Amino acid sequence: MNHIGILGGTFDPPHIGHLFIAMEVLTQLNLSQVWFMPNRIPPHKERKSYVTDEERVQMLQLAISDQPKFTIQPIELEREGPSYTYDTIKLLQEKHVDTKFYFIIGGDMVEYLPHWHKIEELVEMITFVGVKRPGYSFPNTYPIVEVDIPQLDISSSMIRKRLMENANTMYLLPEKVRNYIEEKHLYGT
To answer: Is the distance from CB of 37 to CB of 6 less than 8 angstroms?
Structure first.
């Protein structure tokens, strides 16, 4: 049986925090792979489009290109409407019957779990993996495998702001992603 971690998000842009979380969960839980799953319309927050879906996928591809156990899972970009995790996991389980899925979430999403679409069914389908995030706690409402990692307080919104202000982003983004952003003049660069 394959053990696959899924890290969902807007990845607008993907940064070293995403990569660090994925690698820590991959190694600590001895997973086969981690799939980065960009969503089209996150149901839990408004998403202002800063770049196209194709640009987000290209940045993700560049970000993970050096790690063979990381791949992109585009299923949510291929569907219309909000990216409900329940619907996505149902489709993935139909396609990958010999796979156990671990859905990786940060502390902010752990606190929001009671509001997720069909959460009671979802916790029966997958294993949630919670990664601590500064300023958030882990309530014990649902079963969550906690992975303790050094906390990096980095967010895509913080990076976008720095890019728009022409501030330093070195070491916050993979170099290939930084070069792509500058080359394509994304985020006001």
So the answer is: yes
Q: Which two tokens stand for residue 150?
A: 């050094």
Q: What is the per-residue pLDDT across 64-95, written as a single tens digit (0 to 9) for each? A: 999 999 999 999 999 887 878 999 999 999 99
The sign of the torsion formed by the CA atoms of 18, 24, 27, 31 equals: negative
Domains of the chain: 2-153 (3.40.50.620)
Q: In the β-sheet with 99-106, what is the strand arrangement from edge to edge? A: 70-72, 33-38, 2-9, 99-106, 127-131, 144-147
Phi, psi for 136 (deg, rounded to 5): -125, 150
Confirm whether pTM is higher than 0.85. Answer: yes
CB 107 within 8 A of CB 131: yes
Contact 32, 2 (CB under 8 A): yes
Residue 131 parent element (H or E): strand 127-131
Kindly provide the b/e burial profile for residues 98-132, where b requires at least 16 CB atoms within 10 angstroms of the residue's own CB. eeebbbbbbbebbbebeebeebeebbeebbbbbbb
Other CB atoms within 10 A of residue 184 CB: 13
